Amino acid sequence: MLDSVIVSGIVTIIIGVGGMFAYFWASNWVLDHVFLPAKGEHAGRNINRANQIRPWLFLFPAMFALGLYLVVPVFYSGWLSVTSGVAAGGWYRNYSEIFANDTFRIALLNNMLWVLVVPAASTFFGLIAAQLTDRLSWGNIAKSLIFMPMAISFVGASLIWSFVYHPDIEIGVVNAIRGLFGAESGVTLIDGDIVDSFLLMVVLIWIQTGFAMVILSAALRGVPEETIEAAIIDGANSFDVFFKIKVPQIMGTIVVVWTTITILVLKVYDIVAAMGNQYRNLEILPTQMMRYFDSGNYGFATAISVVIMILVLPVMVWNIRQARSETR
Amino acid sequence: MAQLVLQDVRKRFGKVEVIHGVDLEVKDGEFVVFVGPSGCGKSTLLRMIAGLEEVSGGDVVIGDERMNEVAPSDRGIAMVFQSYALYPHKDVYGNMAFALRHAGEDKKVIDERVRKAADILGLEDLLKRRPKELSGGQRQRVAIGRAIVRDPAIFLFDEPLSNLDAALRVQMRVEILRLHQRLKTTMVYVTHDQVEAMTLADRIVVLRDGRIEQVGTPLELYHHPKNQFVAGFIGSPRMNFLPARAAGEGRVTAAGSGPIEMPVEPRAEAGELTLGIRPEHVEMVAPGQGTVAGEVLVAERLGGETFLHVELDGKETVVVKADGGVTQKPADRVGLRFPPEALHLFGGDGQAFARRERQGVIA
């Protein structure tokens, strides 16, 4: 049994790697010997043309796979959103329907709250954690602890926090703390209030602070020590050094971290599905999309997915642009 | 009046002592250069004056005040760093104005002082530029401008020219000299380059392994080095050293030479001696004449002058600074004359024999 798994694994690797190698070699050979041979009266011209074609030849497998699994679905979703179930009304029927829907508007509002709060809080806490842990002798242990939630799946994290928020005073940490101050019985923390979204956001902040901390800590270490010493001689205290000298110098990285988390937040689904699925007030766009998808309403589902994509797009562009200028 | 006094200043990192008790007085308006090989503690000493390193022992006194525990910004010093240490997110104006803005200085005063500093350094047209849009020399000027604006009692320079190319270094060296002549402020300057030290300093402090080897004017160090280390460090190319033996009556023999009369005060010395002579003082004569003889190994021709590396018959190598037009080639035999008045003599412990004062030598 195990043997056959290993054998088939090895065979797959050989076929995959060997196949790609064969493809690169064969396509290259065909290009150089059949289509544009480097001999005869057009030898020079042929070599130049072959060199222009070659990169595309080698890029083709990757572009094909990405196209098949990424680009085609995007356009197909877009197509479905304007064709599926729009018999009555124009092509925009799905969009006008979902925008007229109260739950969609709650989801949109919640999504905006998530986008405003989570990236800001994660980046802020990550920045503070990065700066403080750098100065501690046990900073690396603190860093590992803060980073650890990154390794937990969103659903797992939701489960952990469900226990933290648990209504039973014997189980829930929050209620237990209330108990310390004299509360006799627990309260239900997540009961579908619109503000309960913030309790769910805490979970994602808890996860993402570690990510922000690690990236920003590396950036902070890249700040030249001499600029800090110059600032100290110029009369800056440690607070000024941090906010006026260090933070401005890593602003590019902060923006990248911020936008990366923003993109992630726009896609978050698991936490709300796991912790607040039954409450309409906690709905966000992806959970609503999945609800329509599950009920077979592909027109509405794809329309929401397009809305999400449009929301992500500008952040994405900014993110990539910033990341590029960082590496330059 | 002493502007800066170091009294038995020590620095320890953990259990390792890197500065072993430095005593120094710097007069008001003086240009003092700390020079020494890397790791000699010159930068650490400067950083202790600046307050960037804690003083482990002894006192740092600026003006009349003991500064050991005073914050860097309150010591009346300004520092120029090797890497310029400009704030990359601020323009030139912002870089120069940072300290004053921070001190809550009046906007008009800031503007006046920044523009005055920019005028001194020729930065008027660059005030709106960011550091990354400036050349190395311009950045260094901004760093100096940032120091000037603070109107310090002492300027501290930490190898400020090391990141510049050779031509620019010479140019900036002159600019720093002129700046000192203009501002007449006390300056303490750290460098590993003895040429910079010689050209800039009123007084040079030669450091080695956390100790002062010698303090003196450039020519004092050149003509009267206290020991073999200073003799070898000051001057380029470095002084030639040859093992020597006492030959009685204040004379020595070295590298197969006859007895040479030494221009030094005699002193009881049992151990091995070392004869020192600078390349520029060795005279080339016909083979068979002169003090010693040897064979040319390498000729480095710089145009105006030629450095000949000559292997003596005793196998020691002597560098000779000769005229640019000399025709000697490798493998040619030459005679070398050591003018007695140019010789240095060092004892077995490396300490120099005191040289007699002579006419025609400025000390």
From TrEMBL, chain A:
The keyword Cell membrane applies. Pfam families: BPD_transp_1. Residues 108-319 form the ABC transmembrane type-1 domain. Gene3D superfamilies: MetI-like. Keywords: Cell membrane, Membrane, Transmembrane, Transmembrane helix, Transport. One of its GO terms (biological process) is transmembrane transport. Its main location: membrane. It comes from the Bacteria. InterPro entries: MetI-like, MetI-like_sf, UgpAE/MalFG_permease. The keyword Endoplasmic reticulum does not apply. This is Maltose ABC transporter membrane protein /trehalose ABC transporter membrane protein /sucrose ABC transporter membrane protein. It comes from Citreimonas salinaria.
Automatic annotation (TrEMBL), chain B:
The keyword ATP-binding applies. InterPro entries: AAA+_ATPase, ABC_transporter-like_ATP-bd, ABC_transporter-like_CS, ABC_transpr_MalK-like, ABC_transpr_MalK/UgpC-like, Mo/tungstate-bd_C_term_dom, NA-bd_OB-fold, P-loop_NTPase. Keywords: ATP-binding, Nucleotide-binding, Sugar transport, Transport. GO terms for molecular function: ABC-type maltose transporter activity; ATP binding; ATP hydrolysis activity. Residues 4-234 form the ABC transporter domain. GO terms for cellular component: ATP-binding cassette (ABC) transporter complex, substrate-binding subunit-containing; maltose transport complex. It comes from the Bacteria. Belongs to the ABC transporter superfamily. This is Multiple sugar transport system ATP-binding protein. It comes from Citreimonas salinaria. The lineage of its organism: Bacteria, Pseudomonadati, Pseudomonadota, Alphaproteobacteria, Rhodobacterales.
